[in-house]
Amino acid sequence: MTSQLFAICFNATRPSDLARFWSGVLGWAVADGPDDDVAVLPPDAAGFRIRFLPSQEPKIGQNRAHFDLTSTSPADQQQTVARALEFGGKHIDVGQLPEERHVVLADPDGNEFCVIEAGNKFLADTGFIGALACDGTQEVGYFWSEALRWPLVWDQDQETAIQSPNGGTKITWGGPPVAPKTGTNRLYFELALPADADWEAEVDRLISLGARRTDIGEGDGVRVLMLDPDGNEFSVRRPR
Question: How confident is the model over 200-214, as pLDDT tens digits?
């Protein structure tokens, strides 16, 4: 049985503060987790949660993934930016051009995200979190399409994107050039299986698609840490 995207996880120096920020920006409820983590929960039960787990590793360079938030109007875009700044975000410069209409910000832990202008056709009907935009190869886009069984909704010039059959947030990969990976990613996917699923069989399936299993993070017996074809960490929770 196929894994489902359970959560987007952030390794955070201040999990509670970061959860309050994203709860304030997104309007999602906060909930305590079982691993000294804090999560914000989507309004739709079919969506993924965002988990913030304690970590003291410093941020090195730009993250390999960031959220793109959508806007319904110029005023709505301005309100989202103002709300983010009110909750502790800040403007940052990542090389965006003056004529570009999206706004680049960072959360209180330095994680980049964008507030996209209204009228963006690619993100139409995706919801407030329009995309998780990732730095990655075409191969890794194909891998995640097969891993989650989400169809490809974009595959051109080595850029790929997938989306759940139920709609919602797209996950995109920008293609080459892909920046070298430095250290552990701050953002990573957490997959989960239904209670009656064969966990080992699913891990084997992911390996057959191009993932690698590591020995890190398996001590609690709750999850296994794996690497996708681009070397990005992700975890697979055991059924409970």
Answer: 999 999 999 999 998
The CA–CA distances, whole Å, from 127 to 92, 167, 169 equal 24, 9, 7
The three-state DSSP-derived secondary structure of 74-87 is HHHHHHHHHHHHHC
Say which residues have a Cβ less than 8 Å from residue 232's Cβ, sequence separation at least 6: 64, 136, 140, 181, 185, 188
Three-state secondary structure call for residue 131: strand
**Cβ count near 180 (within 10 Å):** 7
- Beta-carbon contacts of residue 157 (< 8 Å; ≥ 6 apart): 175
What token pair was written down for 218?
A: 């398996």
Q: Is this model's pTM higher than 0.90 or not? A: yes
Task: Give the span between the Cα atoms of 222 and 220, in whole angstroms.
Answer: 5
> Which residues neighbour 11 within 8 Å (Cβ) at sequence distance 6 or greater?
53, 54, 55, 57, 184, 185, 186, 187, 188
Q: Quick one: angle between helices 199-209 and 138-148, nearest 10?
A: 150
Helix (H) / strand (E) containing 153: strand 152-156
- Token representation of residue 133: 């935009």
**Residues for the chain: how many in total?**
240
